[in-house]
Design brief:
The chain is mostly helical and about 60 residues long. The protein has a domain of about 30 residues. It is about 70% helix and about 0% strand. The longest helix has 22 residues. It is elongated.
Amino acid sequence: MPHMPLILPQEHRHFHKDFQRRQLNTAHMVQPSVMHNHLNTHRVIMPKIIPPTSVPRVLLGA
């Protein structure tokens, strides 16, 4: 069994964030539906930060 390198929680969190950002950029360019689902997820989790009315304007780039 190959030895797995030890990943510190900080490094893992940084890697995960970077991976998410790359995934998000790809989703935005290639699959608008995925980006839309992502925004909906955030709207459910953080309704105070992203009000539903602001989402269409963000998507339109206004």
